[in-house]
Amino acid sequence: ARQPVRVVLVVEGLGRGGRPETIPFLASVAAGPAGGNRAEGADDREVRLAALRGLGKCRHPDAVTALAQVM
Fold it and tell me: What's the rounded Cα separation, in Å, for the pair 30 and 70?
């Protein structure tokens, strides 16, 4: 149970860092496993929610676009 908690913290931290290059990764995780090029581990609901929170904390216009596409 500890591993998913660590992954959640890391994924949320990527959004807090505010680096635009993390946005595609966070969007991929948030979108889940439903198709093509999804990040490994994106099938875990808690990790997907952490990616959404991370995108929400990222202060970049591309993060808003990514959120709109995955929600």
Answer: 7
> Cα separation of 37 and 58, whole Å?
22
What's the predicted TM-score (pTM) here?
Answer: 0.78
- What gap in Å lies between CA 4 and CA 41, rounded to an integer? 9
Chain centroid, CA 45 distance in Å:
11
Two tokens, residue 55: 């995108």
Give me the average pLDDT of each 10-residue run along the chain (71 residues).
74 86 92 64 77 90 91 83
Q: Residue 7 in contact with residue 18, Cβ under 8 Å?
A: no
Q: Which residues, including other chains, have CB under 8 Å from residue 36's CB and lie 6 or more apart?
A: none
Single out the residue of 31, 17, 14, 16 nearest to residue 66, CA to CA.
31
